[in-house]
Amino acid sequence: MSNASQTFDQGTAEQYLTFSLGQETFAVSTRNVREIIEFGRLTPVPMMPASVLGVINLRGGVVPIIDLRQRFGEGETRIGRRSCIVILDVSRDEVQQTIGIVVEAVCAVLEIPPQDIEPAPTFGSHIRTDFIRGMGKIDGNIVVLLDIGRVLSLEDMQQLASTAASASKQSA
Amino acid sequence: MNLDSIIGTFLAESRELLQQMEDALLQIEQSPDDPELINAIFRAAHTIKGSSGLFGYDAIVAFTHVAESVLDRVRAGEVRFDSELIALMLQVGDHLGGLIDWLADGHDLADVSVETRATDAELITCLKRYLEEAPTAATAPQAAESDHTEARTASGETASHHWHLSLRFGADTLRSGMDPTSFLRYMATFGTVAHVEPVLEHLPALDKLDPEACYIGLELAFVSDADQATIDGTFEFVRDESSIEIIPPHSPLTAFASLLQLRQDEGDEQLQRLLRCGSLTEAEWLQLQTPAVVAESDTTSMSTFGSDDAKSDFPTLAAGNTSPASVATTDNAKAAKAGKEAQRGGGDSNLIRVDAAKLDQLINLVGELIIAGANTRMLAQRSGMLEMNESAETLSRLVEEVRDSALTLRMVQIGATFNRFQRVVRDVSKELGKDIVLQVSGGETELDKTVVEKIGDPLTHLVRNAMDHGIEPAEQRLANGKSAQGVVRLNAYHEAGGIVIEVSDDGGGLNPQKIMAKAVQRGLASEGQPLSDKEIFNLIFEPGFSTADQISNLSGRGVGMDVVKRNITALRGTVELDSKLGQGTCVRIRLPLTLAIIDGFLISVGQASYVVPLDMVEECIELPGKGLENQEFLDLRGDVLPFIRLRQLFADDSTPPRRENVVVVRYAGIRAGLVVDQLLGEFQTVIKPLGKVFAQVPALSGFTILGSGAVALILDIPGLLAQVTHNDNRAGLASSQLNQVNHLRSNAQ
Fold first, then answer.
1. Same domain for B368 and B313
2. Do A46 and B691 touch (CB under 8 A)?
């Protein structure tokens, strides 16, 4: 059983959706990607951390939208002509959640063979290392493979939300 | 058909029946001889026994059989329902409930715990006592009957000592989840099947055979002391579609003659079967041949339970053919009763069991429909086409109606929940040695099923509290000029788009001074804080107020009241308490009717739209332009109205418009204003849950989608009011010179 899954891991290259954010290229497994939509009307939600931009109406469902750069502790993502929202299905601890992320531009869907994936560096990255699943090499360039379940972890965001809420309470 | 789902139905029905039995038992305390109630109890036990037998739950069958026998004697007037028997029967119900739960948890009846077995045995011993008592009364009619029997022997009565059963199962028997062999198994619990003859004539050729259809019939010789009703009852579930003939021992020959006539299509083979069963002897057969008897056969007294359905696979006697002869009177009475039951059954058959998940799906779809409808209406208005507009209006009115009726599907009456407390009150009052009755009103008030399911625990707590700490001992009551019997009341009614449930008692009431003293001691209030009685009473809902040692020296209640409050708050409800010292206490629970769709009032601040539940909106006014910059309350026709600036609260840095508006909201007695930019009017709001990400935001209760497709936020008014008043207190503004403001704030705490 374990043998079989190992050969599967080595033999089949997983597909990744790459997108750019700031100066960098990131990638998420296409298994998490539900769809890509154009950047549209967003309703901000008060008393939330800045990384939660708000919510959108996705065919009758309400989906929260996250700014990854602010989640990484960097500046706001600039919204431009090529900006998109990538809708992701994130499941963590058996809780399924649909969350959207804002990206500056969607690049491509690529196969990255396992031998081209290096483990996450223990230092030298400006992003929390537990957010990184690995570093992929594509044509001599490095893309950051995100552990999207970790990045969009509900517990983390809830914590952020409650601190944001109490902070605004204090200031009010 | 899936066996699991049938068992599920069996479990659900058994629970319902046990509940009916309990209700009837509790009612019978008041009117011990009401035949309707006695029958209801008997029917419940009987049906449980019958259906358990079908599933082969022999332990339940054996146990229920004893209980049923006792009930049968009650029905026959040989035993009377006294309080002791009622208590015993209630225990029987509980025990059966326990067994059903055990099955529901997926266990095997063979593995029940030692205690359960002990209860089983103990209850059976108690029940058997009722069966042994007063044997004289029972034997008398039997003797009379045997006399009668002897008298009949002369007039062509058969010699066989056993019942003869002629069964032709309907084609759909297997499809409806019944197995012919299960009847044999069940019958073996109260008699011996002496001989079985299979009837295979109706089996078609292989190429025409439908593997799901039942073609088999059985001829049975059955030795049993059971009465006809018991044997009839065995086939209760297949009677409609099958042809079931039951011939008692020593029946007249004519009974067999008409049976043979009925099974004419089977010809000689049927006769051979009767002979092989020993139900008919050769001599009797020859006697039958004489035309006189055959002619008589049309007016036989054989009991027929065949189907009236002409399309049935098996020919049956027309209903009119069964004319009363020898056993006439009792059978007639039975038939009349059966008719009555059928009528009652007819009422039940108007109900359909529906999976709750399907209802949820429907309500979700209706929600989508409302959003789509709102969009159409908006586009129609924009188009400026008059006809289009009218059509859209009609559409949205219809959608509104669909919404309302979809929501009522989930609504159930609270009466059933209330009635459960009859038992609680009865048991607890015995336990406490107090004479307490429960008065129930407003049981027809409807609310959402999910809410009903969750309200049971808090209500139990409140009722127990009222009985334990509210109602004084009888002597004290008499000394205070009250009747010795205490009263606990449960009441429900609709108010302002919600439901109010009241639990009240006519007991000693609460002493505000004592509660205040306790609250100060616990650090929940400060000495000399000017609080009204009502505010003081509501302190007992504070966590940390109550501990067990207080019951005595407080002579009040409070144990676990914070838990009650937490449960109610989780249902988006509130709870408050009212009490008059010496006269009683009333706890009032307010709950929303449903959790899915509300009528909302749409407002906007800057770019964002918000929805306030319409039933909380009292009025809208324009914010007076001057002199309010640093103030947090305004003068509303002489009353002080505190207000919240939403722009400020939500840190919206857009510039406010020249004119701002105030929406006056009221919730649970607190009134406050919300300062907003624009009033956009009424809006049907489909509540989309906040989801995990936003669960922590205190001022929001959900999202909704506007006709334009944009998302709006639903404000959580109770949460908002509580949060803002809280902030004010923290900021040290609590000591406002305006008493009323202070009042409002502390109320919200």
1. no
2. no
Q: Does the pLDDT of residue B506 top 70, yes or no? A: yes
Contacts of A113 (CB under 8 A, 6+ apart): A13
Could you tell me the sign of the dihedral formed by the alpha carbons of B116, B117, B122, B123, in that order?
positive
Structural domain total, chain B = 5
The helix or strand, by DSSP H or E, that contains position B541, with its residue range, turns out to be none
Query: Is pLDDT at B730 greater than 80 in this prediction?
Result: no
Our separate counts of H helices and E strands in chain A read 4, 11
Nearest to A43 among B371, B711, B727 (CB): B711
Using the beta-carbon criterion (under 8 Å), do B709 and A45 form an inter-chain contact?
Answer: no
pLDDT, tens digit (0-9, with 9 covering 90-100), for B510-521: 777 777 877 787
Query: Please, which pLDDT band fits residue A64 given cuts at 50, 70 and 90?
Result: very high
Asked if the Cβ–Cβ distance from B649 to A165 is below 8 Å, we say no
Tokens at B123, concatenated = 């209850």
Mean residue pLDDT across chain B = 75
Query: Which residues have a Cβ under 8 Å from the Cβ of B193 and sit 6 or more positions away?
Result: B184, B187, B220, B221, B222, B223
**Strand partners for B577:** B587
Segment B185-231, tens digit of pLDDT: 888 878 888 888 888 888 888 888 888 888 888 888 888 877 777 78
Residue B620, pLDDT > 80, answer yes
Separation between Cα atoms, residue B454 and residue B735, nearest integer Å:
39
Is residue B581 assigned to a domain? yes
**Residue-level pLDDT at A87:** 94
B722 and chain A in contact, CB less than 8 A: no
| In chain B, residues 347-406 whose CB comes closer than 8 Å to chain A | 367-368, 371
pLDDT of B611: 93
How many angstroms separate the CA atoms of B582 and B588, rounded?
19
Closest in B371, B693, B713 to A161, CB measured: B693
Q: How far apart are CA B116 and CA B98, in angstroms?
A: 8
Whole-angstrom Cα distance, residue B325 to residue B258?
14
Say how far apart CA B291 and CA B321 lie, in whole Å: 19
Contact residues on chain A for B714, CB-CB shorter than 8 A: none
Q: What is the pLDDT of residues A18-60, one digit of tens each?
A: 998 888 889 999 988 999 998 888 888 888 888 888 999 887 7
Please name the residue ranges forming H helices in B349-481. 356-383, 386-409, 415-432, 449-465, 474-479
Asked whether the beta carbons of residue A57 and residue B693 sit closer than 8 angstroms, the reply is: no
Which alpha helices (H) appear in B135-177, and where do they start and end?
135-153
Subunit contact B703:A55, Cβ cutoff 8 A:
yes
Task: Concatenate the DSSP letters of all residues of A7-27 into one string.
Answer: HHHHHSPEEEEEEEETTEEEE
Residues of chain B with pLDDT > 90, as a percent, come to 3
User: For residue B664, what pLDDT is reported?
Assistant: 92
Residues B268 and B283 in one domain: yes
Q: What is the number of other CB atoms lying within 10 angstroms of the CB of residue B309?
A: 12
Task: Name the band, by pLDDT with cuts 50, 70 and 90, for residue A159.
Answer: low
Q: How far is A57 from chain B (nearest CA, A)?
A: 6
CATH number of the domain at B245, please. 3.30.70.1150
Whether B571 maps to a domain, the answer reads: yes
Both B522 and B646 in one domain: the answer is: no
Chain A residues with CB-CB distance to B under 8 A? 41, 43-48, 52, 54-57, 60-62, 64, 95, 97, 99, 154, 157-158, 161-162, 165, 168-169, 171-172
**Residue B141 falls within a domain, yes or no?**
no
My answer on whether B333 and B223 are in the same domain is: yes
Domain interval for residue B519:
412-592
pLDDT of residue A28: 92
Asked whether residue B698 is assigned to any structural domain, the reply reads: yes
Residue B636: pLDDT band with limits 50, 70, 90:
confident
The closest CB to that of B693, out of A41, A154, A172, belongs to A154
